[in-house]
Design a protein that fits this description.
By secondary structure, the protein is mainly beta. 7% of the residues lie in helices and 39% in strands. The chain has one helix at 82-87; strands spanning 17-23, 32-38, 42-46, 52-56, 60-65, 70-74.
Length: 90
Amino acid sequence: MDITPKNLIHHELIGLTTKIVASTAPNQIGLKGKIVDETRNMFMIEKEDHRIKKTAKEGVTFVFMLSDAKVKVNGKLLLARPENRVQKRR
């Protein structure tokens, strides 16, 4: 199943490129990279210099870059174990 703006929050996010556009932690705004791991409350994002930054999902607005669109998502919508979020009804 292809990732679309409509099904993004119910899809596997590891491997997607993301950028933080708003955050309760101002030093994280502008962080961009590829999601390499995910837990219930956190993303691990690999930056271009190959360093990995951990960021909370709650209190953050992400923009995910898909092949044909950019999708802005409130991190609060992503709060769940990845395996549980993917199984939720769409």
